[in-house]
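Interim report, section 4.2 (structural modelling).
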Amino acid sequence: IFEYNGSAIVAMVGKNCFAIASDRRLGVQLQTIATDFQRIYKIHDKLFIGLAGLATDAQTLYQKLVFRHKLYQLREERDMKPQTFASLVSALLYEKRFGPFFCQPVIAGLGDEDKPFICTMDSIGAKELAKDFVVAGTASESLYGACEAMFKPDMEAEELFETISQALLSSVDRDCLSGWGGHVYVVTATEVTERILKGRMD
Amino acid sequence: MECVFGLVGKGFALVVADTSAVHSILLHKTNEDKIMVLDSHKLMGASGEAGDRAQFTEYIQKNVALYQFRNGIPLTTAAAANFTRGELATALRKNPYSVNILLAGYDKETGPSLYYIDYISTLHKVDKAAFGYGSYFSLSMMDRHYHSDMSLEEAVDLVDKCIIEIRSRLVIAPPNFVIKIVDQDGAREHAWRESIKDAPISAA
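Predicted structure of the assembly:
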């Protein structure tokens, strides 16, 4: 059921910046429905969440999270910190422990003093905090290998973009359920750059 | 199996569906309308379990009408699509509907649009889409011949190509199809493509 729609998401930490990237394919098992499906959503300027797994649950979960974050913004009059948001996602997922959302979130944000924060969790909310990179989706095993090989600590935004793009494209090329290009967001303290990659369009 | 497909052209959107009502090996009728007209500028083509299809599309149609009565203005296509998705998503983990939907609409500000809504409520805005066994043929034909801003003649020509493919290659190909169009003048039936006509019912 996690392999029904196909997905690949990766997030990497750089020097005072982070990058989060996803593939663009929406499929129904072997058939490709669309090649412009968005998996990474912006929660606020310095917080992004990518949702891998079943597309319908990703959409429902995103709507719930936006709702919760907007309420938080109204009550607290500020944006949520990434660590807090990760705990919120984890709690929401564990609420459905015995009838879960079939999603694997990847959360990436800039926390206090613009320190980059990334984490992923499984479909019932078990957080995995990492200092370097996190991956999710049908191509996750390839992504682990590619990221481990290509990652260096403290990369600047441009180099981070190149690294994450190469890691994503080479991994989805080995996975039939994900691909059809890539969507990369590179976020620094001052700006957010969104780029579309063209890879093997299959 | 039911074939529904649709595409967006220049200032219009087309939805095409077969018109056979099938129960296991028996073909009940060949003029079953599976594309519901939701309101003046929206079409909803549905495929899937027969009872769910009729009931769910009628439910959406009545709710779209209710919104217009309550608020005085019609829903946009995007809003109707998201409402439909919400209904399917809420029912998904209780008593799910097995209906796949193609929602086509025309809005004055944004023009024509087509939304793909899966039976498990995956929503995506698309230019061309198809459901059912016929999708294997119609999607490939559309991938080859579709381009953005097609004129009505070109689009209907492409639809005919898809229907010919389905008729010639699908083992239990539906005999008749209906083509409905939605553009700035509204949602209406455009044409039928019949290869079998039901015998007229003689007067009792």
